[in-house]
Design brief:
By secondary structure, this protein is an all-alpha fold. The chain is built from four helices and no strands.
Length: 117
């Protein structure tokens, strides 16, 4: 599994760089590699390409959720009184992510197929 993902990572970078002729940010390929390792271990599925719309949607949601779940970005973790004050931005972001998750996963909690293997 690690060999497969490492090889896919190198192939993706090679393809993104137009066979080494331009520089690119390898972040998306590294995200796909780590996500594929996790999904292979947990769900026995993987994404073959970084162009998968489902993969990009999931990575976007994970990034957004971690931004409002992260202790680095939450002032109320450092100043406890803020925990009792309403925070409309966080509530709006949470609701938006609930809607996106329902769109991707459906009501039954099963992953909808969008070009995955």
């Amino acid at each position: 599994m690690i060999d497969l993902e490492s090889c896919s990572f190198v192939k993706d970078i090679w393809k993104l760089t137009c066979e080494g002729s331009i520089g690119v940010d390898p972040h998306i390929a590294a995200q796909r590699m780590s996500f594929n390792i996790t999904t292979m271990l947990c769900y026995a599925i993987r994404f073959d390409t970084i162009d998968s719309s489902l993969l990009l949607d999931i990575l976007k949601i994970v990034s957004q959720v971690s931004s409002f779940r992260s202790t680095n970005n939450n002032l109320q973790d450092y100043v406890p009184i803020y925990r009792y004050l309403p925070d409309k931005r966080r509530e709006m972001a949470k609701e938006e992510h609930r809607v996106q998750a329902r769109r991707l996963w459906g009501r039954g909690g099963t992953l909808r197929s969008h070009g995955r293997r």
